[in-house]
DNA sequence: TTCCGAATTAACCAACTGGTCAACTTCCCT
DNA sequence: AGGGAAGTTGACCAGTTGGTTAATTCGGAA
């Protein structure tokens, strides 16, 4: 019934890209429509507001990203490898973004969160929800590493949050300096935080 | 020659507050003027653009903040205490902001940096400059701690950047969740990163 | 084949954006 | 005391903002 259209997904993709390469505030509805090749009337046919599109778009990308994370953090992979591979994937993604946009873009969730968390409640809640889910991956890996005696982590959740906060800080740094090389520090940094010395290779008991 | 005025500083303070409690994009020149009790004509008498005011404002607050940091990071204070005290001051400041604005506001430099680093070059450069200077405090403290045998840090600069990235990640988390308690994790987190166990009190040789 | 609901379009809106300007007031310094 | 530089004011600007509307065009299913 009625005709079909891919305008909705085009709008979502355009918004994600514009927010990521710029900011929420610097992204206007007109810009989104132009990039998506959609008239403004159509925009408001599919979404009831700019916030609504952002919400849908973020949810959409997160669902996509989660599928990748589920593979990266598969229990089959050695726990610390999961975390390192996850960040290696980040790095690869940022490389592609640099090639495409000439800019290291960092983590869109955090950049957006920093910008709008005092401004838009609905957006903030959604971002919180996503980040909370994200940390679970780290937490699970840390707990497994502890259980396997690879590291000593009496409080896996706390340690995961440290690694997480650190990684977000790094990503932001890379965005601000437009420099991928900061991301290379993650591997050694994470090992320090997790209490694994360079001398004892991943997966081998320390001490 | 001519009359004097405090409109300039009022504009600076209004803008800092508005950016901090909101965002750069959500802060308009009209808003700034209204809060400062200054007409727009006067605004453009003192500043040539919104960016220009932001630049001046950031520089201004940083210069103020530096004086505090110079005390906190005095070589007289035991190195690790400097870092902890610095973060304790952050926490205290955030407490005041929470009481005043009902919100944990985090680090304005990083929030702003996340928002505008792909949008405004001049602003980004200024923020880079400030953050680079900030890291020097941590770096110096870490190097001293290493020299005094309190910690083992062959690469003080790298370790300082880890602590720094971690602290920024935490601050952002606290802003997004509007929750001070995340900041309490810093103390134990920093100790883990710096390789100081809880059992060996600060300032006492480890191992 | 027809028909109904979904998609598209362009024209429109008021409020607001950052920024300008010329006239005017104040008051410091000589 | 009064000249002149610094500060103030409100009216003004063109462009943009997020959002609305009614008329129109399409296309999938009966």
Structure description:
2 copies of one chain form a homodimer. By secondary structure, the first copy, chain A, is mainly alpha-helical. The first copy, chain A, is 70% helix and 0% strand. Chain A is built from 9 helices and no strands. Chain A has helices spanning 7-21, 29-36, 40-46, 50-72, 79-101, 108-116, 121-147, 156-177, 185-194. In chain A, helix 5 (79-101) packs across helix 7 and helix 8 runs antiparallel to helix 9 (185-194). The longest helix of chain A is centred in the middle third of the chain and has 27 residues, at 121-147. The first copy, chain A, is elongated, with a radius of gyration of 19 Å. The A-B interface holds A 21-26, 103, 105-106, 110-111, 113-119, 124, 127-128, 131, 158-159, 161-162, 164-170, 172-173, 175-178, 185, 188-189, 192-193, 195 and B 21-26, 103, 105-106, 110-111, 113-119, 124, 127-128, 131, 158-159, 161-162, 164-170, 172-173, 175-178, 185, 188-189, 192-193, 195. Chain A binds a DNA duplex (30 and 30 nucleotides) through helix 3.
